[in-house]
Amino acid sequence: MSSSILIVEDEVLVARDVSARLERMGYTVVGTAAKGEDAIKLALSEKPNLILMDINLRGEMDGIEAAKKINEASSIPVIFCTAYSNDEVLQRAKVTSPFGYVLKPFDNRELSINIEIALYKHKVEQDLSDTKKNLDATLNNVSDGVVAADADGKIFLINPMAEKIVGCDPGAGFGMTLDDLLKLKAFESGQAVINLTSPETFAYWKQFSGIRQLLTRTDGQTVPIELSASFLDEGSNLTVITLRDISQQLGYEETIQKNALFDSLTELPNRALFVDRLNRAINRREKGGQQGEFSVLFVGLDGFAVINEGFGHEVGDKVITEMGKRIRKVIRDDHTVSRFSGDIFAVLLDPVDAVAESIQVCQQITTAVQEPIAVNDKTLNITASVGVLVNSGDYHSADEMLRDAGTALHRAKTDAQGSYVVFDNLMYEDALRFIDRKNDMQKALVEGVFDVYYQPIIDLKTGQLASMEALARWPHPKEGMIPPDEFIPIAEATGLIMPLGEFVLRKVCNQIRSWNDMGLDGFRVAVNFSARQFETDVLALVQAAMATSGILPSTLTIEITEGLAMKDVARNAIMLEDLRRLGVNISMDDFGTGYSSLSYLKRFPLATLKIDRSFIKDLETDEDDKEITKAIIAMGQSLNLATLAEGVENEAQLEILRSYGCDYIQGNYYGKPMPVADMTEYLNR
Ligand code: C2E
Ligand code: MG
Ligand code: MG
């Protein structure tokens, strides 16, 4: 497409001549104007690619004036042509930044060269201005601050984001040096501060891509920024710096870091941080940087599971939070208190002045925890047990320390609630024995070596055998017969009670079947169930054992302990009710030793209360035991429950129990627990 040209010329003949010549050269003449005003109108309506403008025009406005007006409204390039020129005119013409200047008369070649140069120059300018517009738009909109400076460090470009980050007024940064505008400080001590104005080499900048520095804003505030700097190219010495405000990002990083090291509920250090500090304490001793003892206290809230399940997790969380605060308060600031897990807090006393100081801290902790705590209009009384482990140089790993502190806590919990126990080596041996026992037991279960003994239960009115209790026995290849008091707790702690319980139940059911087949019947056999077994589907277990053995439910009794009433009473009551509906009897074992209350006794479908042996042992001599036993029997009668006394060893005890109206007797007086063969013989008599 040929370029379009507007001719402004007041000499009609000249205008016609020029027009004809231009057409011949291949341009399109969009019009001719004789007056300045007309030239402006035509220029704006026709939008020619170029204007050939005579300077001397008749009328008000000369060509320079007209070109100025056209320039203001558009960017059409103008070539002036004039027959004469003086300095004054040239000067005036110059300010309109014309694209060419030809003197009349001009030949075709001169004209065409001028026109082509003007068009080319205009195009280049147009492109440049487009590029600049795009660049400006980009720089105004990028989320990074951009600052560019020349070889002297003088800023010639700064975008709005950079102004915002630095806090300077729009345009105020131009002409400042980089050092004046960007006041940088090291982010961490020991870190280099960037030298902005005297970069030695290109490689120097390369080190500073994405580096973090602190920037002091014009208002004096400090913001963390991430900064990259580069030379535009190695020769030009132009520096371009991009900056990004990373306060928000750092905020996120901080929370992420915080979550990794602190417990969100109590805001105390978590297990990971605690272990880290413990390791540091050990390392400092090993490197000789610090002498002396340090200790770990494991603080466990007693019965926390009951609180959590009984009152809900919200209450549980509040208790944990409050206890965390209380413990933190009694511990010196330079010691560590962490939430180690669930309801266990771990305390690192470093350094500590021998065992005595640790014990003193234990007392402070247990006292602080014992204060009644009000949660959601309830007042709870909670105790803490503490396991203490003092390291006087024998421990070289955090794992070992934590293991033994855990053992001490476990011991404290089983000794008495609210107590503390300092770990000693005997405990370690106990712990080892525990693990041995566990492994042995696992093996014994697989090999089926467990045995069941039977102890007769006599009806006091008739003097006849009414039932018997099945009691597990562990014939150990090396240690002989291990009594249940030694292995049942380990089985419960390790979960082995599930397979053990099932093993005993199936063995007993099969035995009942054998006796019945031999014509020996008319009695029940009681099997002990651990509270933990109720965490699984006991109903299915009992049904399965009865089905495979083919015994009647009326031959089976299940003994439960008061522990079952300690948690999830509602659920356990339903499970017991299901069992009772099957036709199985439920007995409450070891009654009087736990936390039984009448209210839950009523909720459980019990048939029998077994009075704990501890009340019977000294029944003949101890007045308190008499009172308690009498009361239990009376209570059983009023609740329509049969009563059974365990551990009856002599005639005197038996007579007292008879006088109180006790229904059944179990004990060595009538018969010790015995193996199947002996029991079969007993039944046959
Ligand atoms: P328990 O259920 O209260 O069983 C009664 C315990 O008293 C038995 O101890 C029995 O041997 C003992 N005993 C009975 N009469 C007398 C007596 O006149 N004098 C004395 N001094 N003791 C007497 P054993 O067999 O050592 O069992 C201890 C506990 O182990 C049982 O107490 C029971 O809680 C538990 N246990 C035994 N077998 C099993 C089982 O198969 N499963 C579960 N979960 N626990 C079991
Ligand atoms: Mg029992
Ligand atoms: Mg008992």
Textual characterization of the structure:
There is one protein chain. The mean pLDDT is 88. The chain has 4 domains: 4-139, 3-Layer(aba) Sandwich (Rossmann fold); 145-251, PAS domain (Beta-Lactamase, 2-Layer Sandwich); 267-423, Alpha-Beta Plaits, CATH 3.30.70; 449-684, TIM Barrel (Alpha-Beta Barrel). It starts with a strand and ends with a helix. With 685 residues, it is an alpha/beta fold. It is built from 24 helices and 27 strands. One magnesium ion binds at residues 469, 528, 559, 589. Ligand C2E binds at residues 455, 471-472, 483-485, 488, 501, 504, 528-530, 559, 589-590, 613, 646-649, 666-668, 673.
- The largest beta-sheet arranges its strands as 19-20-22-23-24-25-26-27
Tally the beta strands. Answer: 27
Shape: elongated
Largest sheet: 8 strands, mixed, barrel
Helix content: 40-55%
Give the radius of gyration: 49 Å
The helix/strand class is: alpha/beta
CATH superfamily (homologous) name of the largest domain: EAL domain
The name CATH uses for the topology of the largest domain is TIM Barrel
